[in-house]
Amino acid sequence: MLQxxxxxxxxxxxxxxxxxxxxxxxxxxxxxxxxxHINFIxxxxxxxxxxxxxxxxxxxxxxxGFLDVxxxxxKICVKIAEESKKLDLERAKSxxxxxxxxxxxxxxxxxxxxxxxxxFQSKVGRALTRINVMKRI
Length: 137
Description:
alpha+beta; elongated; seven-stranded mixed sheet; 7 strands; 2 helices; ATP Synthase, domain 1
């Protein structure tokens, strides 16, 4: 068994929950973790975390941070972590539409170096992740 913990700057979403498997969105692809996995630390991107417990899957939207695997303990510290049951599909779709509109305006104006452009790109990624999580449940 793995011991899964997920932290954000403001909450302990999961603390030492026993799970059978964890899949985490890394910056360069998915990282699958089973008991006995080699110890390592890596970056976490924006995407879908899946974990399995007693044959059932659960999903969490993660947004940027790091992953530490050490002796069957999986610790994830991210900027934002959202359980699938707390997500609102219509709100995510609305956020995506607004963020895409802002990104499109920056592109049309040629302001791709503007820090606000980068912020809205991140908002697009978070909205897409939330929508993908909602499609899984």
